[in-house]
Amino acid sequence: MFSQHPLHHLLLLTCFLVNGVFAALPQVDFNRMGKVGLAGAFAGLDLFQNSSSTVTFDSSTSTLLSRSVQGTLTRLAATNPGGRISAGCALGNVFYFGGVFTSIAGNPATNVASYTPSSGAFSPLGSGGPNGEVNAIFCDSKDNKVWVGGSFSSPGSAVAVWDVKASSWSKPPFGGVSGAQGKVLSITTNSSNSGIFFAGSFVSSFQGGSITNGTNNPNVPFSTGATPFSSSLVPIPLQGAQIEGSPSSSDSQFSAINNILCPAGPDGPGNTWLAADGSTAVINVRTFTFISANGIRLGNTFQSNHGTTRFSLATIPDNGVQTLKYIDPTTGQNQTCSDECPLSTDSSILYQDFLFENTLSITGVQIKLSQFTGSGSGLHILQLLSSGAFASSIESNNVQSCFAPNPSNTTRTGDWSVKQVNTDIPGTVQSVLVSSVDVGTPASSGPTFTWIPYVSASGDYDINLLIPGCTEFQDCPLRTSVKVTVFPGENLQPWVTHVLQQNQTDAMALIYSGPILPSSPNLVTTISMSLDDSPAGQGQDGKYMIVADRVQLVLKSATISSNGSAGSPLGSQGGQTSFGFLEWPRSSTQTVDGTKGFPNTTQTALDGAGIQIFNAMGSAVASSSTAITSVVHHSSGSIFLGGNFSLSSGTASGSSNIVAFKSGSLAGMASNGLNGPITSLVSNGDQLFVGGAFTTNAASGSQSQLSNIAMYDIQKNTWIAMGAGLNGQVTSLGLSNGQVQVAGNFTKILATLSGSPGIDAAGLATWDIKKGAWVNSGGFVVGSMSFVGNSTGTAQVLAGNVVASHKFGASGLVMLDNGDKDGPGVTPLGAQLEGSVSTPVSASKKRRHISRATTWISSAGLSRMFSRQSSATQLAPLPAPLSAPAPAVLAGTFWTNGSSEVAIIGGNFSFAASGSAAGSPESQGVAIYDPTTATIRNLQGSQVNGTVRAVLVDGSQLYVGGAFTVEGTNVNGLAIYDLAKQQWDISALSPLQGSPGSAVVVRSITKSPSKANTIIVAGSFALAGLLQCQAICAFDTSAKQWNALGNGILGEISSIAYAGVETLIAAGSIALPGNTPANVAQFGFANATWAAVGQGGDLPGPVTAVEVNSGNPSSIFAAGRASDGSTFLSFWNGVKWAIQGSTLQRDTTVSQLTMVPLQDTHAANGVIESDRMLLVSGTLADSSFGNASSALFDGQSFIPYIVSTSPSGTAGAVASLFHSIANFSFQQHHFLATGVVILISIAIAAGVVFLLALIGILWTLFSRRDDKLNKFEATEDNDDDSTHHRPSSLLEHINAATRTTILGTSPFGGNLSSEKGEKTGRDTTSPTPEQDPFGPDASNYMRAETPSDAVGGLMAEETSRPAYARYSFDGTGEGELPLSAGADVEVLDDRDPAWWYARDVRTGREGVVPAAYLY
């Protein structure tokens, strides 16, 4: 048995090619057959001899394919395993491409190479090329150069230039780019070709500044491990926090962990903490209140034989290990880490800043020092970095931060009092200030409160006002609104916000967003709050209450100039900085080093896009995934930039992944862009096509049809869906011939119609711009594609990891005509067929459709009836039909509809009719296809539910056969459709019935050549209406009546053919009356009798296909499956059957035999005439050539002809070939060569001239004599030799102690196990158990983290341990233990992280207390 691996059949084909059995394909004369369709279960197809069909594909390599203007694909070459081709462009007659590879077509080439289509040659581009991955290539026809961008350092930093004329590499005029990830992902030109656009992940500095990793905060000591952004974050004061480091060094000079929070001197005794030698140290920092933190600052120790090399950080209370972002102080590159973060051992680096991915609300952190140098680990600096700056209304909370000259401060007027409110941490409270004011008091006479936060550095900030919820205060009726005024700094306008304080739960109100200048002796930022000018609410008892809590400043980006313009998180000093986008003017003659900075003279107006993106992104610039990947310059002057980014401020604040730059500023696009990264942009007029990995708009909360691909209408500022999109990421977009080619890692075009499974498209899809629909791509490929782009001439190039590919791509149907010497012309189906949405109908369901007139015949009666007929002969069942996974076309016919000839196809498929609206019902089973317009339409009314295997048109009546039903009718395997009236015409059609337990399958529908108005229906069935006519029956179209053919037969029929007008040839698994085996039988219309063709045992098994050669009853071919499972092809010569083509193997299934005429001839033999061959179709396995879908048999050997592939890359199948001319001649008409015809024409013309001259002379001489001119008339006999051919057809973190204590019962009672048991019982009996209000989602309750976390609680053998009360606890709840601050207690059980069971040593009382209250 042959393997079904997707590549196996291609390997066999390669073997065949090496053996070189056949030099050329026979020239089939398809034009003589009229219009010809080839149908089957395939998605890709090719002529067997084409190289693309006889080559293996290694999906670990990147394969380069050429794509013609018609879409056909041809393999060009492949890289080394692991290679990748990411970009390409054409310059002159050469195509340049790049990626990451070491060879192409077996030739050494590093990351960049060229291909010359005219010679087929691949060449490396000299030496000294890019030493890293290439992501972008731009072919500069103006200067005859190739610009290359990527991630490399030589010959330029991320940019290199190939001079075509000099055949040499050089760095660009600006030297290259650096910063951020330091890579270029896109190179293109502006619309006027006066400048070159570079996009990617890099930072550019203008005005001569240099790109550094230094600090812009003069109050913070410099360190190359920090950025201007991180050094601008004010450290959180930790003087009141609990800091524990364990185990500590026994040396008292290095054992005080608090000394490193804000060290008073350099690394050394009293300023450094060391862990015990040889241990993994854990440092716990707990504030017991929620703080907004943006990261951590760590300074290593360089004490002898000590130092930390690796650490990890988990936040409290969630215990989540965080991913941290940092600058590598050695390379200056942005990096991320999580479980094992590196800490530099370079003594020149004072500290490193590690930032969270987002600002987090936490109560502390736990730092694990996991690796060290020498004897043990240690630290010199440990600081928590805030979100930017902060100030509290409670003066005691405004503690001076490290490196700060002064703390935050407050001022107030009026009467303010302290009020405590519970927090989410059990047993703890937080203080705020409140002021009561009489209703009606003017705002100018009311109380005021002003926060004066210490701001470390200038930058772009959001300021939030924290407002405690009124429900906890129980003062909701008193609450009103306030006016908040922010004074951000000198020369900056104040910002007024009206804030409603009636929120029931804790809330945060944004009161300012924009530039803030740093605090100085002469300048401070102030946030003032007063009673609103028009207070909200009615108050209570004539009073309002206003609340003052905290203000939080969130740094968005650092470095703001005195005029408020934005600057840089990664920094330029004294200039403007851009991110991800740069325009280099072609007119510039300067040679600069862009890695250090650009002079003003090179800055263009469009560079403002990168500058504003840099300012709007804030700290996100440091992300390792942030980048601009693609740029398009629209004719209006606007540029569109796509990539992976989010803008948090500026004119396009809120935009995600795509933004426009027009009229000198960023502009957000509809719905704020898209919710995922963008990889590629192409434009066509006002249409912008966008590809990437997204599912909807950025502002949308629900799924939309913008799945990985979308179109943006620039004029209307709207997103437009491209169908329903694709089911995987798009990597590249191309534009050619009014179509958008889409490459990526997807397998289907998603369906817009209800119930549709979508269209197979494994790596390549094509969108027709004019039609506004997905269309056939022309070629076939299965793979993960990385690039598509235009090559030389009209061709394109496609690259990716290919599993399988064929020249032609079509879902189940191609049209054939005479081609050239290399084979026939192939036109793929222009429409898209999809997987079937049919639900198979069981035999019992089908029987319910039987008309009432036949229900009197019981199943038992049918069983007895047929058992009497078949008892003597146990017929072998027909072999399993040709595998036809959807979409598959199994049968077809042609119908002239007015002036156009269309194909009607049937099979196992569904489709969206051309022009159908989104949401329309899916059509299936039968389609009408117009090859001229490449449009497809459905049959009106109910759709076929099942598989169609035969179709026939007689006048305007369409006969449809197979294994199906039609909803709302009694149809069972056979139906009639009136093409003129466009409706089903089955009122007079009595349904077919199967034998008991068997389904009806119609495999053949033909028109009798002998009897008028007679349609012959054959397959597997027992009754036609009330008439017993097993397997074959005649339908009288005029009388609407079924008639048996003679005495009938037994068994099943697979195929029908005709030997002349009077003889029908039936094949299958057949027995004649009298139980005579006859797997091929003939029926004479003249005498209405059946007879076997040959002896019953001559054929080794049931027949699956039969063909009569030109109507000759003495030349019949039959193919089938023998009883031993082997496949046979037999020839009947009028006397006996003889096996032909013994090389066919067991995996072969023959679905159709068709005699086809030739344009040339083959050697004559006694089986098949020289002017024709037998086309054998199905799934063919042959020892001489491997696998094929169709082969030509010349009477002696098989010639592989068609190879096909399924959508998944496995071998496909051909089901049938159908043609529009039913009766055609095999006789070849020979014509003189064109040159000979021309010579003869010249000779005749010369003769005519001579003759006319002679006549003139004679006329003169013999004027009295009349001459008569006789004309020669030639006629051409038409060959009327014709034949009639048949058509074919889900830490539990709350334990019992916590829960029961809160509910009022002892958590340590004896019913603990019982409670657990009840819980288990409830869980197993109730599908939706009541959710625990203190459950693991922490929505109602937040536990405090405790010192026991580090040691894991008391072990089983421990009974108690001493502790002290940090705070007083009233213990009024049931089971609680009242305590006074400083009391001695004995902890009896600390297994619960939030509540401990303890004994008061003085009183002896026991109960639960908050764990956070003990130490």
Mean pLDDT across all residues, rounded? 83
The count of helical stretches stands at 10
Characterize the quaternary organization of these chains.
Answer: single chain
The number of E-state strands comes to 92
Helix content: under 10%
Question: Runs with pLDDT <50, length 5+?
Answer: 1-22, 208-216, 560-574, 838-872, 1267-1358
Shape: elongated
Describe the biggest sheet?
10 strands, antiparallel
Report the radius of gyration as a whole number of Å.
42 Å
Strand content: 35-45%
State the end-to-end CA separation.
75 Å
What are the main properties of this structure?
single chain; ten-stranded antiparallel sheet; six-stranded antiparallel sheet; 92 strands; elongated; disordered N terminus
State the gist of this model.
The protein is mainly beta and 1415 residues long. It is built from 10 helices and 92 strands. The protein is 7% helix and 41% strand.
Characterise the protein shown here.
Strands 17, 18, 19, 20, 21, 22, 23, 24, 25 and 26 form a ten-stranded antiparallel sheet that branches. The protein has a six-stranded antiparallel sheet with strand order 56-2-87-86-85-84. Strands 28-31-36-33-34 form a five-stranded antiparallel sheet, with no helix packed on it. It contains ten helices and 92 strands. It is mainly beta. The two termini are 75 Å apart.
